[in-house]
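Before going further, it is useful to explain how the protein records used in this thesis are read. An example of such a record is reproduced below.

***
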Amino acid sequence: MKENGSLQADAPASAPFQREPNLRQRILVVEDDATIRQLNTGALACSGYQVDAAEDGEAAWDALQRNNYDLVVTENQMPKVTGVELIKKLQDARMILPVIMATGTLPDEEFAHYPCLQPAVTLLKPYTFAELLNAVKEVLRATSDALQEIAPPPNWPVEPLANHFRL
């Protein structure tokens, strides 16, 4: 597993899925292989996440237009729209959404030409469910921590005061 550095799975592959509170975070799994899509979706759902699935990047883009997600887990080599193309579409639309690329082949050439298209984490197939779940947990935790850093202070007024300007 590679995370613009390194991320190690700390649970053995045989470890049972553990349900942890996750505030029902919503994940979109994008995979053209029906078996892998079903296994990944099931593993994430059993871990307490709300999970939707798309069979290719085009279907994923449609789902992203209709729903809000906390994370996308995508294959790269898919028909219609690849994983890298999906990341580019997200960036072009200014959708701030972390991506885990779970793929058999790294798109090294594309990443070399466009480093901004790097996903938050890259999992190389074959990977274990423990590796997938640890990557999801780490990315969602990092995203949550980043959002808390930019959240307004607790004493920030909810309603605008009469003397504040509106733009």
Remarks:
- The first helix runs from residue 34 to 46.
- The longest strand covers residues 26-30.
